[in-house]
Design brief:
There is one protein chain. By secondary structure, the protein is α/β, with parallel strands linked by helices. The protein folds into 3 domains: 136 residues, Response regulator (Rossmann fold), CATH 3.40.50; 102 residues, Beta-Lactamase (2-Layer Sandwich), CATH 3.30.450; 109 residues, PAS domain (Beta-Lactamase). It contains 12 helices and 15 strands. The chain has a 5-stranded parallel β-sheet, with helices on both faces. A 5-stranded antiparallel β-sheet has the order 7-6-10-9-8, sandwiched between helices. Strands 12-11-15-14-13 form a 5-stranded antiparallel β-sheet, with helices on both faces. α4 links the parallel β4 and β5. α2 packs parallel to α3.
Amino acid sequence: MKKILVVDDEAIIAMNTSMLLRSEGYETSEVYSGEQCLEQLRGDHPPDLVLLDIDLGPNRMDGTETAGRINELYPIPVVFYSGHTDRETISRTEEINNYGYVQKAAGNRQFLLATVKMALRLHSAEMENKKKERYYRLLADNSMDVIATLDFDFNITYVSPAAFTISGFTPEEIRGKKIQDLMTPDSWRMALEHRKELLKEEYGRLTIEIRHYRKDGTIFWAEDTVTLLRDERGTPIGFLATARDISKRKLYEQRVKSSEEFHRESESRLNAILSSINDIVFAFDQEGRFTFYNLSSMDDLYVPPEQFLGKNYREVLPKHLHERFQEAFEKTSNGESDRYEYQLELGGKTRWFFTVHSPIMVKGEVVGSVSVVREITERKIQEEAE
């Protein structure tokens, strides 16, 4: 039940007004001066609304002064209820925050009740809006991202404290500036282009990556999300923007891009080298599994690729080579190279090969090995003939 404090120096009028309000379900109490009104408001159970006469008797605080004090001290709505109709008195009340002015006159009972009802509803909505505003301001003030509002000319009307962290500018230094003063020229041109899209009905939100200036003149990358700001009627009134510093992410992306380009170039050079040589190349991981091969003729393989890739050399090569290959892998695991000859039966013929087996090093650690193999069968035949 809403509680209303009736303030009137005429006790009969105060009592009758209270009876009317109680008949509509309100709880009421009466006092007869501005001083008594303020004293009661200091209590533990203040009213939800003050219905206040203007003329409260000689040598006393009048209604306008009382209302002014209420506005300074308490979040309580005031409705004036007075017999004065002169322009001077009404003008004095207009200078004070109030929720209505009702003339004491016959036939105004329903108008008084309607004004009280509307004042309570309006004040409740205002309190709820202020509560939300405090909540949103708390979020904005403690957000790691920069939150800002701008008008349609891109003047900054509000900016959160996080602006100082990422730009070096205090909120006071930024407010009132145009956003283009804080952007690089190319970013400003991009923002203007996107503004056209944002103002269209089908667009209401967009995210772009642009470059901003810090206070010291350096440039940083930010991810800006901009939303069209509308009033309670849905009319566009400006922009709401959030900005997040993504300089580290952009630096990482650039490093990854450079690394990918380097690896592509390295792979192209390697493929060019491999295609120009007749030697056979095999790569192994640290466990001796085949991971790569390159050759000019499939006739040089002991078994097809699908039978050796991903498998350990012991699963592929004949047993008489296991011990020699094991010795080579032990050397490469210690960062040393090995050179040796071996023979294989391929296509019903005995073929000899010479290999240089070397470690693959990454940041000083062995991660695998590579074997470059050359056939030496003709040389072996000549040596035996001699």
